[in-house]
Design brief:
about 150 residues, mainly beta, 11 strands, about 10% helix
């Protein structure tokens, strides 16, 4: 459980499959709550994908369904090196102008919608999968403290 300015984030971080490798960092300002769920360990330590069920309480939300946004950095998101290896075949030499455009696109942080369910002053985001060696950032607008 993480508490920040009276806002409680029960990050069981992370549900029943929590193996101790996922952690949650909470940052907030006057309009947004940002949850950084990361899955990292020291080199050589065991790690597996975890599934986060995040529960936030103590804030006012405008609707019954909280519209958040999700950003990821993992093997398939915001990973130009992975794209270069998997999709471009790890060529030697200089990339062509078209390949540079593709690599820039692979490095962009995509903003994906994520819906949470609001009950009173509690919002739940369930089944957030966090692969090994990755980070998922959930950003949630709110109206103020409950």
């Amino acid at each position: 459980m993480v508490e920040e300015k009276g806002v409680v984030v029960d990050d069981g971080t992370v549900g029943s499959s929590f193996d101790g490798t996922c952690k949650c960092l909470v940052l907030m300002n006057s309009t947004h709550l940002n949850l950084f769920v990361h899955n990292y360990v020291s080199p050589g330590s065991p790690i597996q994908e975890c599934q986060a069920d995040v529960h936030v309480s103590g804030l006012q939300f405008p609707h019954k369904a909280a519209a958040g946004s999700l950003r990821r950095i993992d093997d398939n998101h915001t990973n130009p090196r992975g794209y270069w290896i998997k999709e471009m075949g790890m060529f030697s030499g200089y990339p062509t102008p078209d390949q540079i455009i593709q690599l820039k696109k692979a490095s962009e942080i995509l903003v994906m919608p994520m819906q949470g369910v609001v009950t009173g002053t509690v919002v739940e985001f369930n089944n957030l999968k966090v692969p090994p060696q990755s980070i998922a950032v959930l950003s949630l607008p709110y109206q103020g403290a409950a």
